[in-house]
Every structure is written in structure tokens, then in C-alpha cells.
Amino acid sequence: TVIHLILLYGSNAVKLLEMCRENPLLKQKIDTNYADIEAQIVYAIRHEEAYSIEDILKRRVSIGLLSNQDLFSVKKTIQYHINEEFELHGRNIDKIFQKYLFENHLAGETL
To answer: Band of the pLDDT at 87, cuts 50, 70, 90?
Structure first.
């Protein structure tokens, strides 16, 4: 797992290992068939502003790139961590969405 994190995150792997030390549950694999661990999800939310299941699955963990199967249990785990992070840190999804719209020049448009 450590080598997996170093290959993916380089020197930032230390941050993920610290997260695992603080919360050992984050060491759990997201799926038993892949090396990705739950700390990667939390890291993506906290440090990479990844707020959707698809963003995390397709761009932040290797499972989305390596698997063609339906990943319902993985998506469920990702959604759990998104919810936990927003509750834990009092993040306001409306403000984040507005920031996204502004940064992508979509403010005032109907989606």
C-alpha cells in the first residue's frame, strides 16, 4: 500500500499516511481487488476539491481506470466519505457549487 501511494502521490503520500495514522479505518481498501484505500477518497475531497463520485472514481483513484465492472459498493463508499467530510468540516455544498459555476463561467446560466 505504501508503494502504491508513493507511486500515485509522490511526496504527498506522507499526508495520506498521516491521515491513516490519525484514523486507522482509512487504511481499508476501497475494494478488495485493488490497492486503493479509503484515505485516497478523503485526500481527494480535502486537498483536491473533488466533490463528486464520478470525479473521485475516474480521476482520483485507480479503480475507475482499471475496472469496467459496475462499482456500486465503491460508489457507496465514496459517497459516504463525501457526506462525512461535508458534515465534519461544515462545508456548504451550495457555496462550492456557486464557486464551480463562477470559475467555469457558468454563473447565471440554467443547467
So the answer is: confident
